């Protein structure tokens, strides 16, 4: 690993200024895992509070804060960044590119995400975290006393800007940076689903931006959007939030679908069944994701026709999703299935996610929704789709791509303990919550009374949460004890796609020569019909690479300073923060940086070492 | 391999064909501009003169606005050029989502039930 | 590094903004950004339309808006769209000087527009339309103000480019920058078309 500019600087400086999509991917991934652990701990605290009736483990206010932070952290600062980590690391490798389209923006996106997460969590130390739920419905949020909700608004705003940039970056990368022969319909499904995810990000996040802007203006600058006394309307927040929020849950599930579509063919030793149908099903899910947001608002009082329209649109989503489920099953059918940890998660995903899907259709029935609304039935439903879908997808991806990302294989034995404990814990926690909900236990309430038949099921649920916590600890141990498994890391699973054609750890320029892709599952095609290596699309030549930059760090830092200025209403701090941001942007604009070239001698030296 | 210096000024002139094309384009753009001024003025006059009933005026000026926006997008911003498939797809995608948002916030905020 | 190499003179391509991969990336990314901005303004328009009759006894659209002022602002912005079109045509023609001239014209028209807008907000505030007076006031100022912030950013951006590249000639690096700035400027005009129709004309006539 060498480039003259970076090696002279310290390691930390290198990681702060890096524009290498692989390093940024790892940063996203590890930060996301950290926030995942924090938010998971918050979940366990909540479950302890609910273990017995009328517990006083957490106070009501603390419970509300932890509940809000658990949801917000899990969605925005754990699940999404982990997927961004995979996307960053894997997409360029899968399409045969040397980097993403905008390495600078990529770095900026990471810092905005991290600073957003920091802003949100600083709230714990300044008099209380946000307490209005992750949906922050007005007027609860617009009237919430203290600064908690302000931290929510600014933290999400800052990280949301970064997310939007990353989305655009991935879109352009996929469209413009594909290797010769890699047509759209030869792209691996993970890249396809990330591409559709990026479109969802592009169209969904601006609605959140405006929602948060209105909430900020109401809370801090005297706006009247949600003040009914001045003619405001609180339903506007719900619409804006869910116009963002429903696509957001697809942003969380589609990359997981993509990971399963990589893992299942690899471990069934079969080409993905119905590739074209899979691509179009992904696109249709993405499209329908924008047509159904109001099913979160059936009880608001939009009226029967509006409810019916959104109910039917919601149920329609079951069709493309069903197509996907059947395609995965038919990929497995007749395959030589290997039960690795990655594949176990993929196999467990199918029934778990189908359960979440079925309760989804139940909830979509707008008349019945009045009964389910705001009960634990909803909690059970969305945890079945988010854990059974997204989190299983993340863990499948962790075990599948770990050798490529970190150069060693995670232990399969420890991994299987982790898998079974997590699977059992997950179903134990959330299966019983369906019944708690049907029995009438409302969600988001800090406690429940004795003698209402809720005790046993709540106790079981808490035990399940403990099991998931123990399982996660096993994963962390696995990460540390497996570090010596550095053999057979280039292509440990007999892979099908381009990322397995290059060495692990990946050289910083990815491909010494841009590969020529001749078929879907390009590497597998070469394994069957060629010499097992990708053909080169260009002669060995110098490689042009971008230079690192510290400017993104300062752009993000300035915005964070300004955010604190907004939260504590100090115009001086706001102006200072914005000045830092605009100065960094200004320098970026006027200073041309054309990068550097990796000489042929260095590429050849790397190849010698590899042999 | 000789590297291209991206900061060097570009030399030479546009080819004859490019010049011809640009001349034609200038003419198209001026015509579109005049047309846009015309429809803008029409829209303002429609509202300013009190003779035209609002039942006609409202859809009419909305139509004029749409025409003008499409002219901006396709002539001034060249969305009609070759190789703009993705651009068209995502701009119309954005317009579609925006239209849904506007409709929902006008109709479904709980004041009138549908 | 690139500086030591023999440099072959760069001949002006027909579309200098899309002659390099960086340029093509920038072009595409900026359009996609505008797709996102469409939703952003859509949300603001929706909020305004949902709240525009909620004047709660404060001044309303019919009391405030003066069509003659808005007409002038519209014409200024429309003309600035044309000047930026001419700038791009001159860029493709290889006429750097005229590119600068037309871009400066765009900036000046943009400043003129901003001046009118500031005057307008000042007037409304004078007539009792404070930001938090009613939901209508908040949503009006937020929608039109966000557009104004876009104009301000566009003016600053184009001015930065004009000063930075005042002597450089057209290069493969700055052609995409000018081009995207012009796209941004057109987009600002597109948004204004909806604002003058939906906010002002419907405010007075509907």
Q: Summarize model confidence as the mean pLDDT of chain C.
A: 91
The coarse silhouette of chain C is elongated
Number of strands of chain B: 0
Count of β-strands of chain C: 0
User: Order of helices and strands of chain C, N to C?
Assistant: HHHHHH
Give the overall shape of chain B: flat
- Tell me the distance between the termini of chain B: 68 Å
CATH superfamily of one domain in chain C, called what?
Cytochrome c oxidase, subunit III, four-helix bundle
Strand content of chain B: under 5%
Binned, the helix content of chain B reads: 55-70%
Query: How many H/I helical runs of chain C?
Result: 6
Major sheet summary line of chain C: none
Note the beta-strand portion of chain C. under 5%
Uncertain runs of chain B: none
CATH topology of one domain in chain C: Four Helix Bundle (Hemerythrin (Met), subunit A)
Q: Write down the Rg of chain B.
A: 22 Å
Low-confidence stretches of chain C: 1-6
Mean pLDDT of chain B: 89
What is the string of helix and strand elements of chain B? Answer: HHH
| Tally of DSSP helical segments of chain B | 3
Short description:
The complex is a heterotrimer of chains A (611), B (114) and C (206). By secondary structure, chain B is an all-alpha fold.
Write up what this structure looks like.
The complex is a heterotrimer of chains A (611), B (114) and C (206). Chain A has one domain: Cytochrome C Oxidase, Chain A, CATH 1.20.210.10. Helix content of chain A is 67%, strand content 2%. Chain A has 21 helices and 4 strands. In chain A, helix 4 (60-94) packs across helix 9 and helix 4 crosses helix 15 (376-406). Mean pLDDT of chain A is 94; it is low at 1-6. The longest helix of chain B has 33 residues, at 16-48. The radius of gyration of chain B is 22 Å and the shape is flat. The mean pLDDT of chain B is 89. In chain C, 75% of the residues lie in helices and 0% in strands. Chain C is elongated. Chain A binds chain B through residues 171, 175, 199, 202-203, 207, 233, 235-236, 239-240, 243, 290-291, 294, 300-306, 541-542, 592, 594, 597, and chain B through 1, 3, 5-7, 86, 90, 93-94, 96-97, 100-101, 104-105, 107-114. Chain C: GO terms for molecular function: cytochrome-c oxidase activity. Chain C: The chain crosses the membrane at residues 28-49, 69-89, 101-119, 139-163, 183-203. Chain C: Belongs to the cytochrome c oxidase subunit 3 family.
